[in-house]
Amino acid sequence: MRGAWFLGLLLGALGLGVAGLKEAFTLRPLGGKAVSCQPGSVPERAELWTNGVVEIPLCRRATLVLLLEGTPARGKGPHVLVAEGSRLLFEGEVLGLRELRFRTSGEGMVVVAFTDDLYLPPEDRNLFLRRLRVEP
Predict the structure, then answer these.
(1) For residue 54, which phi and psi values (nearest 5 degrees)?
(2) What is the C-alpha separation between 69 and 91, in angstroms, rounded?
(3) How does the average pLDDT of the chain come out, rounded?
(4) Nearest-CA neighbor of 76 among 113, 115, 45?
(5) pLDDT for 82-96, tens place per residue?
(6) Which residues pair with 56 in a beta bridge?
(7) pLDDT tens digits, residue range 11-31?
(8) Tell me, what's the pLDDT at 38?
(9) How many angstroms separate the CA atoms of 15 and 87, rounded?
(10) Which of 130, 112, 128, 121 is nearest to 49 (CA)?
(11) Which backbone phi and psi does 110 adopt, to 5 degrees?
């Protein structure tokens, strides 16, 4: 009898713990204020050979011009996201050379994310930041 009671108590505690974990791993949208931007050096070039992010700590209002190059695998170029803080500036495929131009607000870190790497020799999907220009 005592063993059944202890087992019931143990299973109840585990159930409560799992319920708490579910809440801990629930995805929530970014809301409210954007993460503050810490000024730093702005990269001129970057090479993403696998999934990754390039941070651009511009931290001011400006026009940002990115020259990106995507190499394909299975006929598809890299999927790219460009965001400033919680504001999405661009989402799409980059195949070959593509110039993107954005007006930044200076309210968050600008990031360029490469999200769907694929390597099937001899094909290799990659993303290259060939040039970054900041205009007033």
Answers:
(1) -110, 125
(2) 15
(3) 83
(4) 115
(5) 999 989 999 999 999
(6) 110
(7) 555 554 544 445 544 445 455
(8) 84
(9) 38
(10) 128
(11) -90, 130
